[in-house]
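Thread: HIT domain-containing protein, structure

OP (GT): Posting the sequence first so everyone is looking at the same thing. Length is 138 residues per the record. Can we get the structure tokens written out before standup tomorrow? I want them in the notebook alongside the other entries.
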Amino acid sequence: MATPHDEVLAAQEAHLRGLDDADERTIFDKIVAKEIPATILYEDALAMAFRDVNPQAKTHFLVIPKIRAGLTRLSKATEEHKTLLGHLMYTASVVAKQENLDAGYRCVINDGVEGCQSVYHLHVHVIGGQQLSWPPGV
């Protein structure tokens, strides 16, 4: 399991390497294209959900748009992304039910270097399966 410090370093490295460029193919693009393996939990025409390779809770999966369409970060969202963003949250709910997270879960979107974003392909972390604490961290 990665430490919070590891995640900060990964976010800083991604930012410094310019990986927030919408033209750069991400690991998530490769998962969507089935070029690299992932444990896919859900897939439809717009979204895909798969297990996080570095889980931070008993259950931890990601929900991504299959086509980024410039949506590298939440702060880059425009009016044209409203429907897709709603679909991602709906997908998170569908998969959370599938994963038996009836007692609750948390949805997190990291945005930019200070938000610890290390993959510039918008993604929703869904974590649960255990009692979570608050605040989630600083």
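GT: Both are above now. Quick notes for whoever picks this up: Residues 82-98 form the longest helix (17 residues). The chain has a mean pLDDT of 90.
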